[in-house]
Automatic annotation (TrEMBL):
The keyword Transport applies. F(1)F(0) ATP synthase produces ATP from ADP in the presence of a proton or sodium gradient. F-type ATPases consist of two structural domains, F(1) containing the extramembraneous catalytic core and F(0) containing the membrane proton channel, linked together by a central stalk and a peripheral stalk. During catalysis, ATP synthesis in the catalytic domain of F(1) is coupled via a rotary mechanism of the central stalk subunits to proton translocation. This is ATP synthase subunit delta. Transmembrane segments: none annotated. It is found in: Cellular thylakoid membrane; Membrane. PROSITE patterns: ATPASE_DELTA. It is a peripheral membrane protein. Keywords: ATP synthesis, CF(1), Hydrogen ion transport, Ion transport, Membrane, Thylakoid, Transport. The lineage of its organism: Bacteria, Bacillati, Cyanobacteriota, Cyanophyceae, Pseudanabaenales. It holds the Pfam family OSCP. Belongs to the ATPase delta chain family. The gene is atpH.
Amino acid sequence: MKSNSVSQAVVAPYADALISLAQEQNSLDAIARDVRLIGDTLSDSVELSQLFASPLIGENVKKGVIESVFGSQVSALTKSFLLLLVDRKRIAFLSEIVKQFQSLLRVIDGVALAEVTSAFQLSRAQEDSLRDRVKKLTGAKAVELSITVNSDLIGGVIIKVGSQVVDASIRGQLRRIKSSLAAA
């Protein structure tokens, strides 16, 4: 298992380099689409992530997989970047590099990421309402929601933006009532 500090020391320079190169070549939007596609593909395919992480699988096989999976779907710059990761034996960090790139992109675009845990699936109107509230809270130009459903909350939502957490769940309310009763 990779430690977080070692992982971050490897991940950050590659994400920074890709975003800088994309900005220099005025192709940030295209590269961002490519990175989103790569992230979605990795999260949809555990096997692909395992293949990239395996030290037993050779570089040529990994490069072949990159060519067949992403070859015609991503820009030449993105494909070159992926092949460089294989050459430098950093392809195992691809998922983390994608997350770091997306985090940097959100900063550039003024977008806040709100991690929402809900007791039930939210409607489009509820998502829009949450976006508006988080915009007001953070002053961000836009808000990206990452929604997880957890029925243990009983009802309500927990919203995390950066280090701020708003617990508006029934479970959280019950926990606060229990604490206040125990303190009294």
